[in-house]
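Response to reviewer comment R2.3. The reviewers asked that we include at least one raw input/output pair. We reproduce the pair for DMT family transporter here without editing.
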Amino acid sequence: MGKAVYAVVLCALIAGSNGILIKYMTTLNTGAIAFFRTMVPVVFLAPVLFSKKHPLFTGNYKKMLLASAINVVRIYLYLVAFIFTSIGNAVVLFYSWPIFVFVLETLHHSRPLKARQAGVLLIAFAGLVITYSDKNFSFENADVIGMVAAVLSAITYALTVLMFKSESHNYSKEQTIVFQNLVGAFFFIPFLFFVPDATLDQLGVGIFYGFLIGIIVFKLFFYGLKHLEASTASSLMYLEVVSAMVLGYIILEEELTLNTVLGGALIIISSYLITRIKPKNG
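Raw output as returned:
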C-alpha cells in the first residue's frame, strides 16, 4: 500500500505540468493536442495492443471501450478548459471530480444521503458558485467557456475512474492505459490536417506531452488505483492543484483571483472530506 500512495503522490506532482504544456501548444487546435495526448500512449504501448500472451480484448472489453469513448469527451473538455481560462480556474474546478465520484457511487448503490454528506456537497456547490461569481456569465466569455468545460470534464472523468476501477483486476496498468486512449487515438486523427502553422518545437512538445501525461502519469495513477480505494487515490491527487497553481504563477505569471482562491479552497476541502466519508450501503 505504501508504494501505491507514493505512486499517486508522484503522479499528482507531475500532472501539475499539464496546464503549462497545454498553454505552450495553443497554436495547435484542441483536437490536434488531444491526438498527441491519446495516440502517443497507444504507439508506445503497441506491444500490449497486439500481445497474444495477454490479449487485450478479453473480459468486459466492451465496458472498457465505452469508458474509452467517454474519455474522448473528457480529454477534449479538459483541453478546452485550460485553453480558455487560467490554470488556476481550470484545475480547481476540475478537482471537483472526487465529489462526482461520490455522487455516482451513491446513486449506483442506491445509498441514502446522510446529513453530513449533504453538508459536504453544499460546501462544494458553494465553492463552485464563488469561483464563478466574479465572471459575467456569457458563452462569449472565454473564462466561462473554460470553467464550464472544466466542470463537465470533472463529471466525465469521475465516470471513467469508476468504470476503469471496476475492471482493474482484469487488466494490467498498461492495458488500462491503452483502453483509456484507444478510441481517442483514432477519433482525433482528422484534426492533424488543420495545423499548418505548427512548429517542430510544438510537435515535439506534443509528443512529450502525450508520453508524460498519457503514459507516466496514468501508469502511476492506475498502479495506485489498483491497490487503493478510488476515494483514497482521489484525495492524494489534490497535490496536482498546488503543483499546477505554483507552476502557473512562476512560469506564466498568472494571477490568482480571490474568488478562485476561496472557491477553490471550498471545492478542495469538500472533495477531501467526501473521500473521508465511508457511506454504508443503504
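The chain has a mean pLDDT of 83. Residues 3 and 86 are 33 Å apart (CA to CA). Further pairs are available on request from the corresponding author.
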